[in-house]
Amino acid sequence: MIIVIRRRHWIAALLCAVLLIAVPLFALTADRTPAAAEISNWGLSFHTAGEPPRGNATAEELETYNAYFLGRDEKVIYLTFDAGFENGHTPAILDTLKKHDVPAAFFLVGNYLETAPDLVRRMVAEGHTVGNHTYHHPDMSAIGTREAFTAELAETETKYKEITGQDMPKIYRPPQGKYSVQNLQMAKELGYATVFWSLAYVDWYQDNQPDAEEAFQKLLPRMHNGAVVLLHSTSATNAAILDELLTRWKEAGYRFAPITELIEA
């Protein structure tokens, strides 16, 4: 009987020792896991044609950081273009937007502001929104300090004001969709809304452009209520198909709204 009790005590002591070791390890893992999950590339998964996709985070989760990827549940489209440089296609895109009376948001980097100021002024004059795509187009998720993060946005703001005489709208899109929770919080504290997207396709390879049929196959069946559409103004295909694309979206019953409506809704 004495031997049995001692064995039970020994087993109990062993279990306690295991728990004492396991708890700190679990706590350490728990502390690290969220930090690793904070850094991400924005991504989407489409499940049903005509329905909104699922993003890396829900619309509700993003809104806590004044961040958005999807608009209201009605037939409305928020059209956006990213531009790192100008290669001659933006004038045709602006002509088409003017023809259809469609507002768009252009997320521009420093290089674009430096090399195409006349087009920037035209965007503003024709009622489009120019958003902040950072000055140097870095991986913003790798920027850990508020000072460095602020500098990327502030330099773009300064150049925009030099060109237009206006303050830049506080709308920001992370280059390549790379972000972290820390970045979202810093952008919010700087008064920015972060805008991702809910519909895009591979249109950014200047020397490997999709043909019109491929573009329509990607952009028409996946259209959905409240879509934030990301296109690149460097795409020859986009410039060529935009007239028909806007026409077909309108025929499907969609209206086009400025990106500010998404943020203010």
Uncertain segments of ≥5 residues (pLDDT<50)? 1-37
Count of individual helical segments: 10
Report the portion of residues in β strands. 15-25%
**Fraction in helix:** 40-55%
Structural class: alpha/beta
General form: globular
Number of strands: 12
What is the gyration radius calculated from CA atoms?
Answer: 24 Å
Cα-to-Cα separation, first versus last residue:
75 Å
Largest sheet descriptor: 5 strands, parallel
Mean pLDDT: 88
| SSE arrangement, N to C | HEEEHEEHEHHEHEEHEHEHEH
Give a written overview of the molecule.
It is a single chain. Helices cover 48% and strands 16% of the residues. It has ten helices and twelve strands. The strands form four sheets. Strands 5, 6, 7, 11 and 12 form a five-stranded parallel beta sheet that branches. Strands 4-10-8 form a three-stranded parallel beta sheet. Strand 2 and strand 3 form a beta hairpin. Helix 3 packs parallel to helix 9 (236-251) and helix 8 (212-219) packs across helix 9 (236-251).
Chart the SSEs and their pairings.
Elements: H1 2-38, E1 39-41, E2 44-45, E3 54-55, H2 59-63, E4 67-68, E5 76-83, H3 90-100, E6 104-108, H4 110-115, H5 117-125, E7 129-132, H6 146-164, E8 171-172, E9 178-180, H7 181-189, E10 193-195, H8 212-219, E11 227-232, H9 236-251, E12 255-256, H10 259-264
Parallel strand pairs: 4-10, 5-6, 5-11, 5-12, 6-7, 8-10
Antiparallel strand pairs: 1-9, 2-3
Helix pairs in contact: 3-9, 8-9
